[in-house]
Amino acid sequence: MKASDFDYLLPQEQIAYYPLDQRQNSRLLMLKRKSGEITHRKFFELPELLKSGDLLVLNNTKVIPARLYGYRKSGKSIEILLVSKITDKMWECLVKNPKNNEELLFDGGLRAVLSRTETKDWIIKFEAEVDEYIEQHGKMPLPPYINREAEESDKITYQTVYADLKGAIAAPTAGLHFTSDILDEIKSRGVKIEYVTLHIGIGTFKPVKVENINDHNMHGEYRVISETAASAINEAKAEGRRVVAVGTTVVRTLESSVNEAGKVTASSGQTDLFITPGFEFKVVDALVTNFHLPRSTLLMLVAAFSSYENIFKAYEEAREKGYRFLSYGDAMFIN
User: Fold this and answer.
1) What value does the mean pLDDT take over residues 141-154?
2) In CATH, what number does 3-63+153-334 get?
3) Which fold has domain 67-137?
4) 76-85, pLDDT tens digit by residue?
């Protein structure tokens, strides 16, 4: 298939630039995976749409405030997006108009040097450990399509209530709708919950620029599945209970961890799994997800999970009914 097959008109006014005051009040489009039947609910109704015995799998990654603002020697400001941690003092980064071996200065007197690697990536090396500095001075790395500066409130709203392990530079946005009360209600209905980790990286911001989607290279992202989570998932599959993934990151984490026997294995490391229509899902039975950008790998994944026709029909209906799209927008439940 071609990237242009996944294009659609997304009106600017339907991009959610801010979250709702009450995250659980987002709208929820329910899509029957096989028949294409669509119904409209509210996200706080999700617990009643799940079944006793379902296994809900959440991504417990935690977004770091990865945007730093400093100064060049000329006094001009410069923005740094920290991408992945190498050491306590060194990060892979994205930066506009970088210069090799350029010295930078940050508030508080912190100094750093930019350098280019053999693979043409950019590294920033600070003169001191910066974990605490990032927490105090960094801003949340809102996606480019949220066309505004990050605010202090984003440190709460652009984070799931169950975020635990630091390392992501983008939120697992399907999880932003959950509250502690909703999770408690889900458990009270006999639904089990497990956590995996995928630290969302630069791949989230990387558009599909090639027309033949098979030529697109996914950026690797670090993921972890514990022995406990793997065991719970395999037990659910063996007993015929549904595995419900919350977000495309959970889908990629689970489906990239299946061995030749069809079992999910406890593992850690990079995954660059790129899921497109025709992919055979071995683990995930239902999916909670947001509405994604045109021509994105995330849209291709959800089209693979249901069908191309069903997804584009659902997106068209969502646009007609005024749903809010993208990270701070509304949700879908595909089952």
Assistant:
1) 94
2) 3.40.1780.10
3) Thrombin, subunit H (2.40.10)
4) 999 999 998 9
What is the enclosing helix (H) or strand (E) of 309?
Answer: helix 308-320
pTM value? 0.94
Q: Which helix (H) or strand (E) holds 125?
A: strand 122-126
Q: How, if at all, do strands 55-59 and 61-63 pair?
A: unpaired
Tell me if domain 3-63+153-334 and domain 67-137 are identical in fold: no
Going by C-alpha positions, the residue among 47, 17, 90 that lies closest to residue 246 is 47
Kindly report, residue by residue over 5-37, the tens digit of the pLDDT.
999 999 999 999 999 999 999 999 999 998 999
> Using CB atoms within 10 A of its CB, is residue 17 exposed (0-12), middle (13-18) or buried (19+)?
middle
For the stretch 235-254, pLDDT in tens is 999 999 999 999 999 999 99
State the number of CA atoms in the 13 A half-sphere of 174 facing the CB: 27
Residue closest to 178 by CA, chosen among 288, 285, 53, 298: 288
- What's the token pair of residue 224? 């972890």
Cβ burial 269-300 (10 Å sphere, 16+ → b, else e):
eebebbbbbebebebbbbbbbbbbbbbbbbbb
How far, in Å, CA of 327 to CA of 330, rounded? 8
Chain centroid offset of residue 218 CA: 14
Q: Compute the distance between CA of residue 305 and CA of residue 87 in angstroms, rounded to an integer.
A: 37
